[in-house]
Amino acid sequence: MKRRQLEKRLRIAGCLLKREGSSHSLWINPKTGVIEAIPRHTEIKEPLAIKILKSLGAE
Length: 59
Prior knowledge:
There is one protein chain. The protein is built from two helices and three strands. The protein is 34% helix and 29% strand. The protein has a three-stranded antiparallel sheet with strand order 1-2-3, with no helix packed on it.
């Protein structure tokens, strides 16, 4: 999955970008308080993308 596509799905679900790091971005779901790190690659492997979406409640 492309990183931009993953970020778009997170935004639609109400998640916010907490901060940018050098190798990861931290996203938070303000409703649950869950924070998840997303690697800064252009292509994110499908199992990892599914895990991130599920963890942040954006599936």
